Amino acid sequence: MEDLVAKATRHVRVWAVKIPRGEADGFLKRVSEMGKSSGIEVLVLEGDLVFGADHIRSAFYHARKATDEGRNSSENISMETLLYASGERQLSSAIKKMSVDEETEQVAVVQVTPGSLKPDDSWTVMPDVLQNIEIQRLERFGIGEDVLDTIADDKAFELVLEKVASVDIMKK
User: What does the alpha-carbon distance between residue 11 and residue 60 come to, in Å, rounded to a whole number?
Assistant: First the structure.
C-alpha cells in the first residue's frame, strides 16, 4: 500500500512558510499567481493544522481515489485534497478549518498537480512527519484528549492519518 501511495503522490510537494501576522491574504494571492503562471494547482493551508508532508500526501491519495471512483465532493483535486486534509465531512467545515486568516503565522504550501513550482527562498521543505506534535494542535485538528490518552506520544501522527482516511466513511 505504501508503494502505491508513494507512486500516486510523487509529484506532491509541501513547504512550510512562516509569514508575519496579518500577511496571509497577500501571501495567498502571491502563491496563487505563482501556481497560475506555472500551470499548477496550489493549496495554501493553515500550517498549524498540517502535521507533515505525509499528512498531505495521504489526503491527496484519498482525494484522487474518491475522484477516480466518482465519490468526490468537489469539482477539483485541490479542494478535494483540502477536504481530506482537514479530516472533516463537509467542504464548508474543511475550508473554515484549514484556510489561512489574518492570525496565521505558519502556512503550508502544497503543489497539488505535476509541474515545477519554484519555491521562494524563505520556504522550507516540510518533513514527512513532524516530531513532538503539541497536544493543543491535535485538539484543534479534532483529535480529542480522550483519544490522545489511549496512545503513546510517538503515535500521534497515526491518528492524523486515521482522521484523513475516515473522511471516506463520513462521506457515505
Answer: 11
CA nearest neighbour of 91 among 74, 78, 75, 103 = 74
Count how many domains the chain has. Answer: 1
What is the Cα–Cα distance from 105 to 58, expressed in whole angstroms?
24
Chain segment 79-133, per-residue pLDDT in tens: 999 999 999 999 999 999 999 999 999 999 999 999 989 999 999 999 999 988 8
Per residue in 25-49, is it b (16+ CB within 10 Å) or e — as a string?
Answer: eebbeebeebbeeeebbbbbbbbbb
- Do the Cβ atoms of 46 and 77 come closer than 8 Å? no
pTM for this entry = 0.93
Phi-psi category of 137—alpha, beta or left, where left has phi over 0 and alpha has psi -120 to 50? alpha
DSSP conformation letters of 127-167: PSS-SS--HHHHHHHT--HHHHTTS-GGGHHHHHHHHHHHH
Distance CA 72, CA 64 (A): 8
| Residues 73, 65: Cα–Cα separation, whole Å | 12
Determine phi and psi for 49, rounding to 5 degrees: -110, 15
Q: What is the DSSP string of 21-90?
A: TT-HHHHHHHHHHHHHHHT--EEEEEGGG---HHHHHHHHHHHHHHHHTT--SSSSHHHHHHHHHHT-SS
Q: What are the cell numbers at 92?
A: 464548508
